[in-house]
Amino acid sequence: xxxxxxxxxxxVAEDAMNYGxxxxxxxREKFAAAKLMKKLVPDIDRLLxxxxxxxxxxxxxxxxxxAGAVAxxxxxxxxxxx
Length: 82
Prior knowledge:
This protein is mainly alpha-helical. About 45% of the residues lie in helices and about 10% in strands. It has helices at about 5-15, 20-35, 35-50, and strands at about 60-65, 70. Helix 1 (about 5-15) crosses helix 2. The protein is elongated and about 80 Å long.
């Protein structure tokens, strides 16, 4: 928002014929001036989990009104022989 919207307004203010190309050029200039890549790379690394400790395994618990929290993915029905 802090880069692309001002870049679009700057391009339109220039009254050019090819706004698409000019907006892309202005965006590149604004991205470089704002050092956007230095901000994006750590955010993407954090999002993808690079360099982070492995997440603890999340327990899939289900609620049973008699037993409380029980492990999910378990067939709690009594087995019957066929």
